[in-house]
Structures are given as structure tokens and as C-alpha cells.
């Protein structure tokens, strides 16, 4: 335990696997009380079990982040359970399908936008309201390297993740005077279920090889790399950092 978040309380969305699970564990190891949120009860409860096995404190709250009513309940549940909302890691997402723009239907575009961009808006809206009432806090949104540069055949995801960068900057400006910091991380290719799904969708196309070749450090990031960045951005060590999108990508964006 590094005590960066000692006596803090907050929430992590998409915490049933991958970056979200690593994030929930990292916040708990840093001393925080964590609301673990996921659309899957089994996955979310397993994350809680892992935290409790290490002596941490966590509670599961099921939430479909594409539904604003459920997001509002999630924030309320955090405050009612732990008495405060000091931090939030808005991580839940969905990478959709890989195809050129002309082959993507509106329903697919809408789904990707709802789960990624709209969900971040819903989370921010209700989180900043709670944080204003309690005197401040810190929020980290999960964008992507695809929110900083273009990636072929993935337009809905690219659009949503670019939108998160803009939403992060605007919310940071709107709420800085309230003591609320809002930043984003931009993960590069990370060893996670979402990345496995992307590799599976592009099997036999050379996609996996091209992804690895584009990372100057020559390997995928681990979920813990993203989690550690999120914890640090939410900690007092980053107290003058807001409106920033931090690339955690082994140099991928720099190489573009």
C-alpha cells in the first residue's frame, strides 16, 4: 500500500475486468474505499473479492453506464455508502466493430457513442455535482490513443474517444474553481479483454503485428500501467494538474 489515497472514497466503472479491475485494486491498495461498478454482477463481485482478500474495502454496485438513471444511482450509492465522493475513474467502454465508415450502420455508431462518450458525460455530470457539495475531488476519464490520433477502420470508437478528450478539458475548466480536477488517460494497446477482442476481430489481417510494431517500447501495456496513472492523477501529488490527457502507450503517440 502506498497511501496516496488514504481515507479517500470513490468509484471505478468497468471494474469487472481489464483496466477497470486493475484500477479498483490500485485505488484500494493506495488506501481508498472503492465502489466497484460493472454491468456484470459476477465480474464486479470477483473484483470486490480480490480487494477484500488483500485487506481493502470495496462494495459492488451494478451499473449500465449508458443509462443516466443508473449512473445517478451509482454516484448516490457511493456517497451513501462511504459518506463522500473524493475520486472517480470513468473507465467503462466498448470498442465496437472494425470497418470503414461507409460500412458502419447508425445503430452501431450510436451504441459505441452511448457506452463511451455519453456514459462519460453522465458520469461527469453527476460526479461534479456531488463533488461541489463536498468541496472538491478528482476525476480521471479513460480516453485512448485512438482519442489522440486516428486509427483506420474504427471511426465510432475514434470519435467517442476524441470526444472524451474534449469533454475532459471543458469540465476541467468549468469546475477548477470548485476544487475539482478532471483529467484523462489515453491508453495505448493494453493487454486486456478489449484488446483481445480487437485482435480477434482482425485475425489474419496483420493487425496484431502492426500494433506491436508501432509501439516504440515493443510491447503491450499492462492494465496496471493504466491503473497506476489513474491513481496518481487522482492523488494530491497531481494537485495542480487538470485538463490533461496523459498518454500511457509505450511511446505510440509520439511515434505518430
Secondary structure layout plus pairing:
Blueprint: E1 9-12, H1 18-29, E2 33-38, H2 41-53, E3 57-62, H3 68-82, E4 87-90, H4 106-134, E5 137-142, H5 155-175, E6 180-187, H6 193-201, H7 207-213, H8 223-234, E7 245-248
Helix pairs in contact: 1-2, 1-8, 3-4, 4-5
Q: Using DSSP, what is the number of strands?
A: 7
The largest pleated sheet is described as: 7 strands, parallel
Q: Which strand-content bin applies to the residues? A: 5-15%
Question: What is the strand arrangement across the widest sheet?
Answer: 3-2-1-4-5-6-7
CATH architecture: 3-Layer(aba) Sandwich
Runs in which pLDDT lies below 50 for 5 or more consecutive residues are none
Distance between the termini: 36 Å
- Give the CATH level 1 class: Alpha Beta
Helix content: 40-55%
What is the average per-residue confidence, as pLDDT, rounded to a whole number?
94
CATH topology: Rossmann fold
The global form is: globular
**Total count of helical runs of at least 4 residues:** 8
Q: Structural class of the helices, strands and pairings? A: alpha/beta
Amino acid at each position: 500500500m502506498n497511501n496516496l489515497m488514504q481515507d479517500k472514497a470513490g468509484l471505478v466503472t468497468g471494474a469487472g475486468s481489464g483496466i477497470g479491475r486493475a484500477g479498483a485494486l490500485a485505488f484500494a491498495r493506495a488506501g481508498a474505499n472503492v465502489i466497484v461498478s460493472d454491468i456484470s454482477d459476477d465480474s464486479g463481485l470477483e473484483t470486490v473479492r480480490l480487494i477484500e482478500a488483500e485487506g481493502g474495502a470495496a462494495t459492488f454496485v451494478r451499473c449500465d453506464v449508458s443509462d443516466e438513471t443508473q449512473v445517478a444511482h451509482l454516484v448516490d450509492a457511493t456517497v451513501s455508502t462511504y459518506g463522500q465522493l473524493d475520486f472517480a475513474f470513468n473507465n467503462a467502454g466498448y470498442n465496437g466493430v472494425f470497418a470503414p465508415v461507409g460500412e458502419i450502420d447508425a445503430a452501431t455508431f450510436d451504441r459505441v457513442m452511448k457506452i463511451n462518450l455519453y456514459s462519460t458525460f453522465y458520469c461527469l455530470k453527476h460526479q461534479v455535482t456531488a463533488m461541489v457539495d463536498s468541496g472538491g475531488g478528482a476525476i480521471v476519464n479513460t480516453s485512448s490513443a485512438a482519442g489522440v490520433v486516428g486509427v483506420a477502420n474504427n471511426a465510432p470508437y475514434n470519435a467517442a474517444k476524441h470526444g472524451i478528450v474534449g469533454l475532459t478539458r471543458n469540465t476541467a475548466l468549468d469546475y477548477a474553481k470548485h476544487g475539482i480536477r478532471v483529467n484523462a488517460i489515453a491508453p495505448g494497446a493494453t493487454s486486456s479483454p478489449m484488446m483481445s477482442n480487437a485482435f480477434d476481430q482482425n485475425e489474419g489481417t496483420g493487425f496484431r503485428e502492426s500494433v506491436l510494431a508501432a509501439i516504440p517500447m515493443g510491447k503491450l501495456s499492462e492494465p496496471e500501467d493504466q491503473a497506476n496513472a489513474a491513481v496518481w492523477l487522482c492523488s494530491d501529488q497531481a494537485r495542480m494538474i487538470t485538463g490533461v490527457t496523459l498518454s500511457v502507450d509505450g511511446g505510440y503517440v509520439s511515434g505518430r
